[in-house]
Specification:
9% strand; 6 strands; Rossmann fold; 2 domains
Length: 305
């Protein structure tokens, strides 16, 4: 299947990846795989900026709202499921589109997951106890001390990611980041990565505008309906956890919304840091001309044919 091509569309949140993926899917008469780890969950539609019904109707999508927040679903599960689906899709399409801003999930498909040594299970238990007693900031500081590279690149607001990095650091005596990007599993398809980018001020404005639109479209009600489940990992997500604080009267509404915007901007910065490490990504301005991207894809496929 080495003549099969996966086009991976990446970039920071709110940059326009969904719109581009649909345009390319239409042009190449193909289907779309989502690699956004929060758009998997059917209960989280508004706050994850999942494709609208109109967008979903324009091209066949996969891995959108196919899981419940109650389900245990991680990047290893996604890698297995997505590779199996690609085997099926490539039987009828020469090109498939993948889109998403979750760097680890994108890399799981394009490069394969990193292999880590097993560490004593008691380390994770101790870190979880420490999280409950001293809070996430304490673990973040510890990671910064042990592995500054990981501190700057992983989803630092996600306690599960922080604990995973720390348990490797503590269990092996080596930074978590040193186990990354080793030689991984071979893929039986080629990948062409396309990134969308813009000046930081433009990205931040698009984020702020999107958050305002989410609030207008009912994010408060969506979050209020989920507050009883706030302990679930899926809901440790920007846009929900700030509103949970509002409902519990720790924040007023204006502050909660400002925190969503701030934390989303921070998330976009981490996304950019992650993707900029990959020198195989061809970057286009967010105000791209579609013909230029299609021409680039066609030329690359001809050169590598």
């Amino acid at each position: 299947m080495m003549n099969k091509l996966l086009i991976s569309i990446v970039g920071p949140t709110a940059i326009g990846k969904t719109a581009l993926s649909i345009k390319l899917a239409k042009n190449f008469n193909t289907e779309i795989i989502s690699a956004d780890s929060r758009q998997f969950y059917k209960e989280m539609q508004i706050g994850t900026a999942a494709p609208t019904e109109d967008e979903l109707s324009q091209a066949k999508h996969h891995f959108i709202h196919h899981k419940s927040i109650e389900d245990i679903y991680n990047v290893g599960n996604f890698e297995k499921d997505a590779l199996a689906l690609l085997d099926t899709l490539f039987k009828k399409h020469n090109i498939v589109i993948m889109v998403g801003g979750s760097g680890l999930y994108v890399d799981a498909i394009t490069k394969g997951l990193d292999n880590f040594p097993k560490v004593d299970a008691s380390i994770r238990k101790n870190l979880n106890d420490e999280l409950k007693e001293k809070g996430l900031k304490n673990l973040q500081d510890k990671l910064k001390e042990l592995d500054d590279i990981s501190y700057k690149t992983i989803a630092i607001d996600n306690p599960h990611r922080v604990i995973r990095a720390l348990e490797i650091c503590i269990g092996t005596g080596k930074p978590y980041s040193t186990f990354l990007n080793k030689e991984k599993a071979k893929r039986n398809f080629k990948t062409l990565s396309i990134g969308l980018t813009a000046d930081r001020e433009i990205i931040y404005k698009r984020i702020n505008d999107r958050v305002d639109m989410m609030i207008k479209h009912g994010l408060l009600q969506e979050a209020e309906n989920l507050i009883s489940k706030k302990h679930l990992n899926a809901l440790n997500t920007v846009g929900y956890k700030e509103l949970f604080n509002y409902f519990e009267e720790e924040y007023d509404l204006d502050f909660a919304i400002s925190e969503i915007k701030k934390n989303t901007r921070r998330f976009a910065k981490r996304q950019t840091t992650w993707f900029k490490k990959d020198d195989t990504i061809r970057w286009f301005d967010y105000q791209y001309k579609l013909e230029e991207i299609i021409d680039y894809i066609n030329k690359k496929t001809q050169l590598e044919a």
